[in-house]
């Protein structure tokens, strides 16, 4: 019988398959909610979900996001730094590397969330993932 379990990866794939309007969508989000542990929220923080990387965020006491995902109206009211890099990159050159980055991140986050980790270890999770993504664009 076919696998009917709906996974994080299947949700990402589903969102990416809706590519006809993906250029108009500014960002996508998927949340995995846990009754007994930490919930994880995955954000692209970039448009065009079919060519975006989902990055994890966990609400911890001292959670931090990257300044690269914050709009700075003094510099550019329409784009974040991450958004600028994302919009000017060549997907054919970095796509496979970014898919690998996302896959590695998914596996590592699942492993950490399944363990009895100290939540403070996840404070910089999204920040670190955003900064790793930007390194591929430079």
Give the SSE layout.
Layout: H1 8-17, E1 29-32, E2 40-43, E3 55-57, H2 81-88, H3 91-114, H4 125-137
Antiparallel strand pairs: 1-2, 2-3
Descriptive notes:
With 138 residues, the chain is mostly helical. The protein contains four helices and three strands. It has helices at 8-17, 81-88, 91-114, 125-137, and strands spanning 29-32, 40-43, 55-57. A three-stranded antiparallel beta sheet has the order 1-2-3. A hairpin with a 7-residue loop joins strand 1 (29-32) and strand 2. Helix 2 (81-88) packs parallel to helix 4 and helix 3 (91-114) runs antiparallel to helix 4 (125-137). The model has no long low-confidence stretch (mean pLDDT 88).
Give a quick summary of the entry.
It is built from 4 helices and 3 strands; from the N terminus they run H-E-E-E-H-H-H. With 138 residues, the chain is mainly α.
Spatial extent as radius of gyration: 15 Å
General form: globular
Question: Which spans of ≥5 residues are poorly predicted at pLDDT below 50?
Answer: none
Assembly state of the chains shown = single chain
N-to-C series of helices and strands = HEEEHHH
Structural class, judged by helices and strands? mainly alpha
What key attributes describe this structure?
mainly alpha; single chain; 138 residues; 3 strands; 4 helices
